[in-house]
Amino acid sequence: MATAVAVAGLGVSVWYDAHAHLRANAEESTLKAAQHHLAALRHDKVVTNYANAVTTNRRNDLEASIGTTLNQLAGVEASVSSANAGASLEGVGISTLHTCLGGVQAALSQVSANNNAAAAKDVSAVSGPCALLDGGANAGLVYPFDFPDPDVILVGRTYYAYATNSVAGNIQIIASSDLTHWTAVGNALPSLPAWAKPDNTWAPEVARANGSFFMYYAVEVAATGTQCISVATARSAQGPFVDTSTGPLECQQSLGGSIDPSTFTDTNGVSYLVWKSGGPGSSKVWSEQLNAAGTGIASGASPALLLLPERSWEAGTVEAPDLLRANGHYFLFFSGNDWNSANYGIGVATCTGPLGPCADATPNPILSSGAGIAGPGGESIFTDTSGAYWMAFHSWVPGAVGFPNSRDLYLRRIDLSGALPSVAAPGPG
Amino acid sequence: MTDVLLAQPRPPALIPAPPRGGPRRRRVWVAALTCAALLGAGLGYLLFDAIQSNHQYDGARHTLRITRVTTDVVSQELIKARGELRLVTQQVGNDTTALAQDTSQLEGARSALSAAQAHVLEQASLLNSLHACLGGVEQALNALAVGSQAKAAGALQSVSASCAAAVNASG
Q1: Which tens digits make up the pLDDT trace of A27-40?
Q2: Angular region, A156: left φ>0, alpha ψ -120 to 50, beta rest
Q3: Which residues of B touch A89 (CB under 8 A)?
Q4: Residues 6 or more apart in contact with residue A379 via CB below 8 angstroms
Q5: Residue from A71, A80, A127, A172 to probe the interface with B (highest B Cβ count within 10 Å)
Q6: Whole-angstrom Cα distance, residue B145 to residue A403?
Q7: Model-level pTM?
Q8: Which of these, A208, A203, A237, lies nearest to A220 by C-alpha position?
Q9: Are A389 and A414 spatial neighbours (Cβ–Cβ below 8 Å)?
Q10: Could you give the angle at which helices B22-145 and B149-158 cross, rounded to 10 degrees?
Q11: Tell me, what's the ipTM?
């Protein structure tokens, strides 16, 4: 009995032990499989993360390349736009140049056919395009053709401007109703007196008195070759002005001649002729009383010296005087330095009366070469329909200085309310 | 009662009878005791071995549980990483296409720029010719105004090449 029990117990123990082994081994196998799977997963994860990092780098590189490319594209597109805008502007410039050149060529053809009036019309017809080419109205340019030593008067509501001879005639005349758009009228002085020689009729000034218009101008005396001053009259501002004189109104032959006439009528109604004598280094500005008719020097009058070229900027030349009175002050405007250069400029002197004495103001010049203008001069002062003061002057276009280039017509507002005049910046009224 | 009991004669004490055949009987006892000892030792070993196996089983089971949890975590991370990889790969594809398009557009823009610049240069040349021509014609007019035919002719002559170039360029 005990043996049986012992054998049975031994058998149970063996079975139990074997079962425990089997179970432990099975669990170990499962664990190994699970660990192998985990190792595989970890490997996959490492590989995937690596691939992810590589791909992300590639993506970042691509995005950086896209950014660079887009920046370059933006730059190139901006350049294309700029080039196209430049081409467009050039296209406008070409078109404008074609138009202007066409008008000037037509004028040249008319001159060749001895039809100067038609030439003037042809030129003024392309005034707008040509003005754009010469810088537009930014600097005050209003008439982009040769119009030296301008003088402007207001008759009714129409402005007339006169200038030194050109292909348009002995004395050019143009008209405007707004001071901006000017049209050629023609030749204000179709013929010269017998004693005068053509092609050198300069610096006209037109004054109105007793229902007539008086044009004072410089002209070459045929017999002597000296420039002297004469006067012509007309019933209307447009002319034709007729000079019936038998000799010059003023001529200081010993001083090298007399040119650049202008007139001044004081508040007492007495008129004066103001002009310049001599050439570079010997120029002088004079004043002398006119007779009541305005066609001759007052009896007993003699020239009074107003101004000498004493300032360095004038370089020995003062000319183109224009005397006026404003707010109780006498202002003598004049041009100084070499007319045929960009050094030319406009100055002002203050005077105690129409016969002087006058003294250079400071600072001078009040207008000189600058943006859009080169060598301004030949000025004259006038009032517009509202009574505001303007200065008409000629200037070379920068880059085209010196004869036979053109001296175009410019207008600038001028302020005479102070002790000294000041020229306003160009722009609308 | 007590007296009764006391009155009864006490039975003789149970004293084992001396073994009959002495040494043989002792050998049986020794064998029996040896078998019992061997049996006990075997059972002890078996019991110890079973306990060891159970400990091994418990350890493996515990480690397996941790391994499975770790596996789940790693699996989730792997799924996430694969998702990210898929997304980034898709982005790379899109970016490659976009870069190709942008590059093509850039080439086109560069071509347009070259053409525009050439056009600008061409027009600038024409402008220069026209400007020079106009200047000469205007100078001729001004020279004629003062009766200087020679100067007028000279001015026109000096710009004849520019005028011809302008005419040619204008077609």
Answers
A1: 999 999 999 999 99
A2: left
A3: none
A4: A320, A322, A333, A335, A346, A367, A391, A392, A393
A5: A80
A6: 12
A7: 0.72
A8: A203
A9: yes
A10: 160
A11: 0.72
